[in-house]
Amino acid sequence: MEIICVANGDYERYEELLLQRDQLEKEAYRHQLAYTREFGDLAIECFQLKIDCIALKKSIAFCIAAKNRGEKPDLAALSELLLRQMAAYTKQLDDMVNEQKAARGGRPLAPYEVSEIKKIYRRIAKMLHPDISPLTEMYPELGELFQRVMIAYQCNDLQELRNLEVLINKVLSDYDIETVNMAIPNVAERILELENEIEQILTTEPYIYKYLFEDEFKIQIKKDELKKEIEEYCTYKAQLEKQYRNLMNGELNE
Description:
Number of helices: 10
Number of strands: 0
Helix content: over 70%
Oligomer: single chain
């Protein structure tokens, strides 16, 4: 089957912006990994202290409520409450730890690998990107393969991209697909949307982390900020622990 390619006047601009957007998103992901490698340990320590403080505040509120009712705090009920209400924070902390492990597990890429990853992705995206091609919607297997392509591209997995390109070409060959209908409706509006997306990426985290790593002094300032925040949380946690002990000993200060 042959699907005729229909390009309109703005198509090339749209395609280039689409690929630029994806490239910038990938760069933002790389800057996020670099940030996690550099500051992850401090950020995790800080977030753990934050969780501890939140749990202590909830425990104190629970004990005060029990005291106001003239009851002893039910520690089993408190434990169940904390388990339920702190689940989201615990998951976020686990995610941070896993991200730190993943960030440290990566290896630097050689320039030729970076170039080949970009070339393979552009070849595949021009055929299958859902924003410019109907094929991923028409053929579910191509949609699934393109999702794998996006993941491999983000993770700089060159071997996976090579394998996926072979699989994609096999599917295209099986269906006798040679070209793709690339007529884009409302292309001027979509170009504007992409330009806005690109501007948003370039001016927000994690992309702007790149400027942090251009200056060793800025890196040290960020580390000092995190260390200061850790110290403040440690002080606050100690205060909350004292208040909680007093409550449990029936020594609430009015």
